[in-house]
Every structure is written in structure tokens, then in C-alpha cells.
Predict the structure.
Amino acid sequence: MLQIENLHVRTDGRDILQGVSLTVERGEVHAVMGPNGSGKSTLANVIAGRPGYEVTEGAVRFDGIDLLALEPEERAHHGVFLAFQYPVEIPGVSNMEFLKAALDSRNAAAGEEELSAIDFMRRARGAADRLDLNPEFLKRGVNEGFSGGEKKRNEILQMLLLEPTLAVLDETDSGLDIDALRIVAAGVNAYASPDNAVVLVTHYQRLLDHIVPDYVHVLVDGRIARTGDKALALELESNGYGWLADPAS
Amino acid sequence: MTPAETFAERTHAQRVDYAPWLDREASRRALAEHGLPEPRCEAWRYSNPNRWYQAEPRPSPSAGASPRAVGARLVDFATADDDARTLVRDHLHTAADRAKHPLATVNDIAMRLGLLVHVPVSDTPAEVELGELGGGIERVLVVVDPNASATLVERPATPTHRVVECVLGEGAQLDHVRLQPPAESVEYHLVAARLGAASRYRLAQYSQGASLRRNDLHVRVAGRGGEAEVRCGYRLAAGTHLDTQVGVEHEATDGVSRQTARGVVGDRARAVLNGRIHVAPGAQRSDAALTTKSLLLAATAQLNAKPELTIYADDVRCAHGATVGELDADALFYLRSRGVVEEAARELLIGGFLAEAVADVAGDDARALLGIGR
Ligand SMILES: Nc1ncnc2c1ncn2[C@@H]1O[C@H](COP(=O)(O)OP(=O)(O)O)[C@@H](O)[C@H]1O
Ligand SMILES: [Mg+2]
């Protein structure tokens, strides 16, 4: 479904990604790990189409389509979703208004009918419930004054509502206490299916106790230094990332 | 002679047949003494008053809803009885200052319609709707009796030159909403309010731009403990011009005032926003604040915003802050990444920004006017 080939990305005059290749198929869960500053968010952002990154080499294809040629909203319409590491606060726009606009655009792009306000509310409340979020929070400004954990749960709420085929979750575990982590993990696990794929971006192995990945990739200095299964994550936990950076190992 | 002088002379010499019982002499004298503003004078730095003199304000044919009121009396100056005339004589110009607002003296002399809104005490707040008044040059005098309360909503459909004077008695309350739809006209408006002791006046003005729309909003906290709020929300489409001059004067002790403005300025549009707080000697324990937030949508959008504080009392609280920005690129990307197409995402952000300017009273009308929501 997702093919990343030899991806080189530059931002602010610095080469951040230096030849990343990665293939993700439906039904798979991938973890992308790596130390801070290794380029994990850069990779996630480039997939989602965030402005400010220059792809200097390589390609990203999604179901055969050149993803890099699409606007961010078009990528979303094709089923790409990014849970932000730092969700944005938008005062004055209610969470509900935001979610409805997102869902309406997706349905419009798919040629489907707009959800009635009642159906929308039912679905939004249901998703909030699953994430143990007070429905009152749908009325608040988007992420406005939300705690770190609420922001992350709000990202997952959007994922549940938008039902993407590729969900890239950037450090969704950070800022969550253990209960919230369990709730979020349960949401992701319930969502993961043979029809979609999840890419977990994290620098802790903690999340992987709750969401078991099929593949673990380690990004170091803008390259995938190692790919393995869950055992690799455990190895990283005990040994750190240092040994991977060493070309001799 | 300059256009200002010519216009002043013509106005001065005008023979008036509307409500001839009104005493226009003081206004004629003020006009003769102070004249009319010339281009580029301090108060008209960014808006050329010649355009107003040349626009020749005219009566407009009546259209839309006529004024209606529940719990208040509406009297046309032309048909005012002795009782109403007394109210008008006692209150006209107690809020509006001829020397400060010379264009309002033109309105005094040349008005084609005057309306007295009298709000007596009642168990429930009065509700007044001023739709189309049809005068073109219009004068509204709102007298809120001590301890009386009212909401007043102005929604003219066609361009007007309107001077609204609000006089609040002790303990009175007035929620005043002005809705200014988009127009291609050149307009002058003055709202002048005078607050009695412990009264509360809240003005919310929601505006789209016009060819030139000038709003002078002048609030005098004249009685002890009066509370004033002036709220402006505006959205200027491409090429339009809106000049808003807000002045709040604390003349008595323990007054509170809040000025807030939020505006969005489009392509080649210009917003002028002057916010003034004046605390007179002796107006101790005044508490005044002024904040403006502006969003510029294009490199060609222009904003001239200036706070002005003149404080002659020592025990006061006075705060002001201003921000100017563009649409938040991160927020825009956030929305687009959720599938909201760029144009809709921009609208959503603009709406969110302006939504914070909207008060409860006539909130739906304000949102509709500002194009907020779907
Ligand atoms: N928009 C940007 N502008 C400038 N530098 C950036 C930007 N995004 C990322 N970087 C830099 O790129 C490197 C990788 O960042 P990032 O992708 O956020 O790493 P990670 O998510 O793995 O911590 C860091 O050195 C960071 O400072
Ligand atoms: Mg990161």
C-alpha cells in the first residue's frame, strides 16, 4: 500500500532524511523508532504533506499514486492520516465543528452523502466514549486548553471517526499516563484491521507493550539502520540506540 | 475654498424643514467655529473626509423592516409631542460632543429623520429593533431611565449616516448591537454614550467594509461605577475600507471599561483602528483595558492600529495589548491534513478568529454578518 523509496528530505538547509525505504501493506502494524532528532517526525510529516520540507530524492507511493504530488487534503481523502506529535490549538473553532468539517470533506471527496447532525453527534459521542473522553469536550475549542493526554486522545478520536487506511501516529504515547495509554492502545487495536495499516512513531518501547507491531524499524541519522520484529524494540530498550549508529556493529 | 469649507458653508446655510422645533443654533455655531475636518488631519489621517463631503449624503428610499419596540416608546422627532420634545431637549448632546465630532453637527442640521427611543423602567428589559429608518441622514436618541434596561439592535439594510446618542440613567443597562452589512457607500457614523452612576452599557459593532465607512464610538463613563464594554468585530472584503475610532472617557471614580476589537483584513482592504482611553483627573480607581487582534489575509492588506492612553489620575488600572498576524500555517495544515480543503480550512480559521468577537446578544446575526459558520 505505502512504498517509500530512497527518500531524501531537506529542511532549513539541512538534509534530515538520507535514503529511507519502507514498505507498508494493509493489515500490518509498523513501529518506527529512533532517538530524538533522528527524523521520525520529518518522515511522518512528509507522508502527510506538511509544507516546509523539500524532497530532494526518492518517491512515496500510496496504492500506486505519487503521494508527494498531492495536496495534504487530497492525501487525507485517499486515506492517509497523521496523528500529530504536537496537535494544534485552534481557539474559536469547536472540536465538533472541526470534526464535522473533516468528516464532511472526506464524505464529499468520496461522493458520499453528508452525515446528518444527529448521526454525526452519535458517532462523535461514541468515539469519545471509547476513549473515555467527556462528551463536553466536543464543544470546546479544538485542543484549546486540553491537557497533553487529551490532545493525544483527540488525535485518536479523529482517527476513529475518519477511518483512514494508513494511520501514522507520531509519538501518540508521549504525555499519556498509563491508564490513558491503555485506552489509546485499545482504540488503536480495535481500529487496526486487515484493511488498514498503522505506523507507530515512538522513541519509547512502552507503547509496544500494548500495541504489538509486526515490524520494528530503527531510524538513525536519517536512515533506517535496522528492521526487525518486536524483539528489536526490547533490545533497544536495554541497549539504547548507540550501538546502531556505530558502523562497525 | 476646500471641499470641507464649501460643505460646511452649504450645511450652515441649509434651510431645514424637518422637525423645525429642534434647536439647531448651537450646532450651526459649532460648525462655524470648528469647521469640518480637512484631509490628513490627525483624526482623519487614513480616511479622506473629502470623499464624504463629495458623496452628498441623501435620503434613501425606505426598505426593509421599520423600527419596532417592546417595552420602549419610539417617537419620530417630526411628530413629537411636548413630552417627547422635552426628553429630546434635555438629553440631546449630553453624550455627543459637537467639538469632538464635527461631522455629527452636520447630522444635527441636515437630519432627515430623528427618532427618540425612550426606555422606562419595567420588569422585563425592553427590546428595540432599528431596521431601516429610511432617512439617509439619521439621528437616534436613546434615553434609558434610571434602573431601566434594554437591548437595542441596529440593522440598516441601506447606507446611512447615523448618529446614535445613548443616555443611561443611574443603574440603567443597555445592550447595543450594530450590524453593518457590506456596502459600496461612503458613510459616517457616531455612537455617543453617556453612562450614569452604576449603569452598564455594552456596545457590540459588527462590520463589513464599505467604500469608506467611518465609525466614531465615544463612551463617557460619567457616573460613579459605570461599566462600559465596546466590542468590535469586522471583516473587510477585498478593496474595502473601515475606520473605527473608539474613545472611552473615564470622568468619574470606580468606572470599568473594556474595549476589544477583532478584525480580518482582506486583499487591498484597509482597517483603521484607534482605541483611546482617557482618564480624567479625579477618576480614581478607574479600570480600563483595550485589546485589539487583527488578521491580515494578504500582503496588500493594510492595518493602522493605534492605542492611545491619556491618564490624569494616579490610582487607576489601565491595560492595553495589540496583536497582528496572519492565518496560522500550522493550524491550516492541521485542518488540511484532516481532509478539509484549503479554502474551507481558511474559512474555518477566519471564522474561529472572529467568533471570539461575538457576544451573546444577536450572536446569530453577528455570525451571519461576519460569515462565520456553515
Ligand atoms: N521544520 C523544521 N525546520 C528546521 N529543522 C527541523 C524541522 N523539522 C525538523 N527539523 C530538524 O530535523 C531533525 C529531525 O527532526 P524530527 O524529524 O522532528 O526528529 P524526531 O521526530 O525523530 O525527533 C532535528 O534536528 C530537527 O531539529
Ligand atoms: Mg518527533
Summary: Residues A 11-12, 16, 34, 36-42, 52 surround adenosine-5'-diphosphate (ligand 1) (CB under 6 Å). The interface with chain B takes residues 48-51, 71-73, 75-77, 81-82, 84, 87-93, 97-98, 101-102, 105-106, 109, 141, 158, 162 of chain A (CB under 8 Å).
